[in-house]
């Protein structure tokens, strides 16, 4: 379980997110939605310890994040941010294998258990057929599945994804989220995901948190959140445009 309580964070002493609280349990998918620049990516960076919080608390399985070493955190949490991975001359299998580095020690040697974890993750994400292909030669949709396999073979309790389908067409977006949903439920992973595709967020999410100007403006189930009034208010959409494009 991941729990965020009264969190403040920002850059160069400027606060970007203020008094933010939410939680996501094992097997749940929680989506962060809101306008560009609202603070969604900042939240994920704090959870991953890429950015120090100003104050507040982040708990992983009821243990305060600050008391968890980076090595131990890498076994509990896998995070994928918006920056695209560009490994040179690495096969897709080699990219997935990097997900085992928290377990392999200084030399990065994979034992039989590591190899089985890689194989299983690639099988579950339908990427085994890409194993020997160069990562930078496969399609964007295939890369996203490989990156998901890398995250899954890390065997995390929590998976944090920042706009993971930004480069995909609608068919590949749906396929990606179907895979993610199945893995979350089967493996009991707590998933927190930053999204712009509100229709897909409505379908895939167990919980939704609305973020605007660095603050949580609303949270609840998709049924509670995806009402015309709340979406218009969150994105500052005039009623006539909402009716034209969403109804």
- CATH architecture group name: 3-Layer(aba) Sandwich
Rounded Rg: 18 Å
SSE order: EEEHEEHEHHHHEHEHEEHHH
Outline the biggest β-sheet.
6 strands, mixed
Helix percentage range: 25-40%
- Major beta sheet, strand line-up: 6-7-8-3-9-10
Entry summary:
By secondary structure, the protein is an alpha/beta fold. It has helices at residues 40-47, 70-76, 92-97, 101-104, 112-124, 140-153, 170-187, 198-204, 222-225, 228-235, 239-246; strands at 2-11, 14-24, 29-33, 53-60, 63-64, 77-80, 158-162, 190-194, 207-212, 215-220.
Characterize the structure shown.
By secondary structure, this protein is an alpha/beta fold. The chain has a single domain (2-86, 156-246), classed as 3-Layer(aba) Sandwich (Rossmann fold), CATH 3.40.50. Helices cover 39% and strands 25% of the residues. The chain is built from eleven helices and ten strands. It has helices at 40-47, 70-76, 92-97, 101-104, 112-124, 140-153, 170-187, 198-204, 222-225, 228-235, 239-246, and strands at 2-11, 14-24, 29-33, 53-60, 63-64, 77-80, 158-162, 190-194, 207-212, 215-220. The strands form two sheets. It has a six-stranded mixed β-sheet, sandwiched between helices. Strands 2-1-4-5 form a four-stranded antiparallel β-sheet, covered by helices on one side. A hairpin with a 2-residue loop joins strand 4 (53-60) and strand 5. The model has no long low-confidence stretch (mean pLDDT 91).
């Amino acid at each position: 379980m991941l729990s965020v309580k009264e969190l403040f964070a920002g850059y160069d002493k400027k606060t970007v997110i203020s008094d933010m609280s939410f939680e996501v349990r094992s097997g749940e998918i929680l989506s962060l939605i809101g306008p560009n620049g609202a603070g969604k990516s900042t939240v994920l960076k704090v959870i991953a310890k890429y950015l120090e919080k100003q104050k507040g608390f982040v708990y992983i399985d009821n243990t305060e994040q600050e008391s968890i070493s980076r090595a131990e955190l890498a076994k509990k949490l896998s995070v994928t941010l918006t920056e695209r991975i560009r490994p040179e001359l690495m096969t897709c299998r080699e990219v997935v294998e990097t997900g085992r580095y928290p377990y392999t020690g200084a030399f990065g040697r994979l034992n039989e258990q590591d190899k089985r974890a890689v194989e299983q993750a690639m099988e579950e994400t339908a990427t085994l057929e890409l194993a020997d292909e160069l990562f930078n030669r496969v399609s964007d949709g295939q890369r996203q599945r490989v990156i998901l396999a890398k995250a899954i073979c890390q065997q995390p309790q929590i998976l944090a994804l920042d706009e993971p389908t930004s480069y995909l067409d609608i068919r590949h977006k749906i396929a990606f989220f179907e895979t993610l949903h199945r893995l979350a439920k089967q493996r009991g992973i707590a998933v927190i995901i930053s999204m712009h595709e509100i229709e897909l967020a409505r379908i895939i999410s167990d919980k939704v948190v609305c973020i605007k100007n660095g603050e949580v403006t609303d949270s609840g189930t998709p049924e509670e959140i995806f009402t015309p009034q709340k979406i218009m208010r969150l994105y500052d959409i005039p009623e006539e445009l909402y009716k034209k494009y969403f109804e």
